[in-house]
């Protein structure tokens, strides 16, 4: 593009085109260059982020959401309720009540405590509470479970999860990643009164080409008058 502009400037000087028409010609070239910018690649398209709220200690020994899907970049907002202490620890589908080596560990807490973690990749996550007999009594759950997966028979079925509406605003405060351990789990400020799932979309890539093009067109018409 720089080479083309230089050629146009040389042409204006050599042919002695009037200043007004020369500037208009330059602006026309800029309009074409701006409007011909390539569209964003599919991976650069608007990102949709969902905030999943999971009540810890729901119905005594359970999670309000225990079988749902979450994509990369989604936020898991864990909110403890009740006076009993519970933990949130990552496990595996094969052994839901056994801590996964290197998995996330949010520690043992009771209300009021909440923490947000971001999903680093879309894969299967299993979580449970290792306090007393919590897990055996149904305090476990999974995210992106394989199709047709069935929990081990020796475990009590988890409580029926809450059907959550799409509400706002999203939970606020500090956020950590799925690699968190109990020593680093920082509480999120504030709380969410009801279990909910909040969906929001934001365009992270769209440039203001339309505004720029429109402005250049107006300038061109003005100069040609």
From TrEMBL:
Listed transmembrane segments: none
Region (Disordered): 159-192
Biased composition (Polar residues): 173-192
Entry-linked InterPro entries: Cupredoxin, Ser-rich/MCO-related
Protein name: 12138_t:CDS:1
Organism: Funneliformis mosseae (Endomycorrhizal fungus)
